[in-house]
Design goal:
Layout: H1 4-8, E1 32-37, H2 52-59, H3 74-78, E2 81-85, H4 93-105, E3 111-116, H5 122-133, E4 136-141, H6 161-167, E5 171-179, H7 187-194, E6 198-201, H8 202-214, E7 220-226, H9 248-256, E8 261-268, H10 279-297
Parallel strand pairs: 1-2, 1-3, 3-8, 4-5, 4-7, 5-6, 7-8
The chain binds manganese (II) ion (MN).
Length: 299
């Protein structure tokens, strides 16, 4: 396995790739890739998620080869590599969405572990997933519903991607977890029922997590994690923080419990300019590590 030397290396200051994995060259034996999508022009509040991939790579330096809780060597099992960043076009959402979809269409039988970017990028990713697999399930961890119809009359933002994905018929079962914070209206709560989304609030996660876990889908599932599902005390570096969220331990445990077939996995809305002491980027890197570990465990 070609990456072992790099993983065992004590050169923790090297930041060029995720977890000091090799850059992807030959993809023939690769089962998973790390991929950055540095786009944040669909953000509505604090910007900076375009620096997410860079920050998450930096926050991943201390990741080591063996996951003791899942008893797996994720990077070895998946022969994982870092595919670099997709060349997005700042300021141009439509063009960027096309590029993201095209780039993802190029990888076959490889599970992408994606660092955003704001949450709008999940829509073109889901379009690519649909092209590959047909309708997939979505497990969405977020403090926000993200199914609003529009912001300032605009249909493509980081708060509307889920509504578009549903309208485009990309999704099968949708499970949301961690919803909280003040809302625009009571209609938001009703809309989750109308849209046939299983929405679980932060209270559901804190008070009856085992019951929520039973509602998770089986089969081909895409995982999208807005880092703001985690409390700002544990993940301050994000665009639209909501207090009263998950701890870093809780989110890692939730990811470890996933028992479906992961077809793709993103961690979005990590904004390093608002981070402190790399708390958020280290957490995001570890969430991706646990996701890769869950996938590797099933191999
Ligand atoms: Mn959010």
């Amino acid at each position: 396995m070609r990456q072992i030397d790099a993983l065992k290396s004590p050169r923790f200051t090297q930041v060029s790739t995720f977890a000091r994995l090799p850059l992807c060259e030959d993809l023939s034996e690769v089962k998973a890739v790390f991929l950055g999508i540095p786009f944040d022009d669909a953000t509505t509040y604090r910007p900076g998620a375009r620096f997410g991939p860079m920050g998450i790579r930096q926050g991943s330096r201390l990741l080591r080869p063996y996951n003791q809780f899942l008893d797996v060597y994720p990077f070895d099992t998946l022969n994982m590599c870092d595919a670099g960043d997709i060349n997005v076009i700042p300021g141009y959402i439509d063009d960027t969405f096309k590029i993201i979809e095209e780039e993802l269409n190029k990888i076959h039988n490889i599970v992408p572990f994606i660092a955003g970017g704001d949450h709008s990028i999940t829509l073109p990713i889901l379009r690519a997933m649909h092209k590959k697999y047909g309708k997939v399930n979505l497990v969405h961890l977020d403090s926000h519903y993200d199914f609003w119809d529009s912001y300032w009359g605009k249909k493509y933002t980081h708060g509307t991607w889920l509504r578009r994905a549903l309208e485009e018929g990309l999704l099968n079962e949708v499970v949301q977890m961690g919803i909280r914070g003040s809302l625009y209206s009571r209609d938001d709560v009703e809309d989750s029922k109308r849209l046939r989304i299983k929405s679980f609030t932060i209270r559901d996660l804190k008070y009856k997590l085992e019951e929520v876990k039973k509602e998770l889908p089986s089969g081909k599932t895409y995982v999208s994690i807005d880092i703001d599902v985690v409390d700002p005390a544990f993940a301050p570096g994000t665009g639209t923080p909501e207090v009263g969220g998950l701890t870093s331990f809780e989110i890692l445990e939730i990811v470890r419990s996933f028992n479906f077939n992961i077809v793709g996995f993103d961690v979005v809305e990590v904004s390093p300019p608002y981070d402190t002491s790399e708390i958020t980027t280290m957490l995001a890197a570890n969430i991706l590590y646990e996701g890769a570990s869950v996938l590797a465990k099933k191999m």
